[in-house]
Design goal:
Rossmann fold
Length: about 350
């Protein structure tokens, strides 16, 4: 049986480098495409080179000629598209770059697949931000957390799209292009609307990757600011569970083509900001000082993914508990202090 070929755009990022190692260990021929612009990507690439066999393409997805060159030569069986501008705050200050990377970059990859390898399974890493503020989902404060009043399973894929920021707009446009290319051109494409993904190799910063950022800042005794009251809740998913979902989708494209799926920890894996601070204090056995500031525009009191559609389609479910995942993340930060 011939070796399967996988292209991972953004493959030196947090999810990308974990994906490259995951699929490489399963005998996939992996190509990592990345422009190495994001903090930590050079370190992740170095880590990958120690024990993983892969090809590297130093390419920006905005460069259509370079994208075409890679897709023409690759004859890929699957493409996981992770290359993106990932911060809402950055999209507000520089919406042009955000649009160019997320919307045009995704279009370049999709259209190149259409022309050069239309049978490749295409997984687009979308975001829960495509749902905006979710005005019809009522929440209230119950004890130390906000909870949904009328969404017991969380937010499902039937929720109307309501882009709220330039980031939401650019990712939302790409999300819809992925689904429409599946319908119009029969490309086996799907959109994974991902919630908070966390785990090792995540060089989180204040405005993106909050779980990793809290862990990094806590261990390195850097200042942590909580915007709002700290009781806002998100569902969190360990990167290992996300990769298992990617693999399941690639193995069963007929079950995911032209469909969007919410991908997260679901109601059983939720954290508030102060929950995470409490966990870190217990693990590190010391108090962690925080500063408080006003709510940021567009911040939601609660977001929890309804993951039943993905569970049903692929017989997939999260397996890594929050406690296990956070402990693993702390250990990785502690072992790699010099990297920060």
């Amino acid at each position: 049986m011939p070796t399967k070929r996988l292209l991972i755009t953004g493959g030196a990022g947090f999810v990308g480098c974990n994906a490259a190692r995951y699929f490489g260990a399963r005998n996939w021929n992996v190509t990592v495409l990345d422009n190495l612009s994001r903090q930590g990507t050079d370190k992740n690439l170095h880590w990958l080179r120690d024990g993983t066999t892969f090809d590297f393409e130093h390419v920006d997805v905005r460069d259509r000629v370079a994208v075409d060159r890679v897709l023409t030569a690759g004859r890929f069986d699957a493409v996981i598209h992770l290359a993106a501008q990932v911060a809402v705050t950055t999209s507000v200050t520089d919406p042009a770059t955000d649009f160019a990377v997320n919307a045009i970059g995704t279009f370049n990859v999709l259209d190149s697949i259409r022309l050069h390898c239309p049978e490749a399974v295409f997984i687009f890493a979308s975001t829960n931000k495509v749902y905006g503020k979710i005005a019809n989902a009522q929440s209230e404060l119950r004890g130390s957390r906000y909870e949904y009043v009328n969404r017991p399973y969380g937010i499902s894929e039937t929720e109307p799209l309501d882009f709220l920021s330039p980031y939401g707009c650019s990712k939302g446009a790409a999300d819809q292009y992925a689904l429409d290319f599946a319908r119009i051109y029969q490309i086996p494409a799907t959109s994974f609307r991902q919630s908070c993904i966390y785990g090792p190799r995540q060089f989180g910063v204040e405005d993106q990757g909050w779980v990793a950022w809290f862990a990094i800042a806590s261990l390195l005794k850097r200042p942590i600011t909580i915007f709002g009251d700290g009781k806002q809740v998100r569902d969190v998913l360990h990167v290992e569970d996300l990769l298992r979902a990617y693999e399941a989708a690639i193995r069963a494209p007929e079950k995911v083509t032209a469909e969007a799926f919410n991908v997260g920890g679901g109601p059983e894996r939720v954290l508030s900001l102060i929950d995470l601070i409490d966990m870190l204090q217990r693990q590190l056995r010391r108090d962690i000082p925080v500063k408080w500031d006003n709510w940021r525009p567009g911040d939601q009191q609660v977001y929890i993914s309804d993951i039943r559609k993905l569970q049903s389609a692929l017989c997939w479910k999260p397996e890594v508990s929050v406690t296990t995942g956070i402990t693993q993340l702390i250990e990785w930060v502690a072992q790699n202090r010099a990297a920060f």
